[in-house]
Design goal:
Largest sheet: 11 strands, mixed
Shape: globular
CATH topology of the largest domain: Pseudouridine synthase
Order of helices and strands: EHHEEEEEHEEHEEEEEHHEEH
Number of strands: 15
CATH class of the largest domain: Alpha Beta
Oligomer: single chain
Helix content: 10-25%
CATH architecture of the largest domain: 2-Layer Sandwich
Amino acid sequence: MIEHTFKVKQNLVGKRLDLAIVSAGLKLSRRQAKSIIDDGNAFVNGQRIRISSRVLNFGDQVRILYHEVKKTPSSVELSSEDILFRKDGILVINKPSGLPTQASKETDKNQVLPALSRLWQKQDWRREEFHLIHRLDKNTSGVLVLAESTEIRHQLEKQFRDRMVEKHYEAICHGKAEETKSLSCRLSAIAPHSGKVKVVSKGGKASETHFELAAYSEEHDVSHVRCQPITGRSHQIRVHLAYLNTPIVADHIYGSKPSELVTFLGSDYPDRQLLHARSIKLINPVTGSPIKVKSPYPDDFKFMLDHLGLR
């Protein structure tokens, strides 16, 4: 257990206890600061404080006890828990943020197919062939469909082409989204240098997404939005939400960083766009019956929903 003591100077006067701990230069996130306080390991002038919003005064003596923060590994791997559905040659996984679906200009060697092969080898499962049916951006989490045979691959790809697949995403966005909104527009291809997709009046490809407001926090001016893409263009949901002036939080290509949200979250401000592929519905080519697979919220998305009052 590490002990650290600091005195409240002018720059911390009127600040909440959790934010003061974050500002103490210990590389602790706001989530970690709250955990310290909740666990009864924060003291102000010798008195144990369990309220994160406790306001500090000039000269207050703050003492905290905490465990050393362990660094998490940078590489993202798949686990058996990430297998959401596997039957009749159909495989649906819960792709974590930070794992590219396939090779890109970043030449990241850690991609879905090699990660699956490593998982199969680790579990000593019989090796299968895997075919990607669609893709998610590297920093988008959630449901991803693959096939385990060429025949199933062709049938699933046809469902995607014929728009028979129902996809639902969820996003946390800046600003107040409309209760319901549909956007149809034409989108350019990804620009090779900037990596951006643009809304264009001529050329490009048609795109369409339906949006529904799930919750809004007036205090932080952020929205929890449900998104149903009808088409499947690159960056579609991200571009559409930015075009509607409700860019996704922490989308470093299409979004922005309002200073008040960065100040409130501190080091807990996310390092990836808060977009999650929540569920997918398709037809089992073998049985003809519908399949619906839902992905749980990842920890960072769940934390933001709770912390920003978007439940």
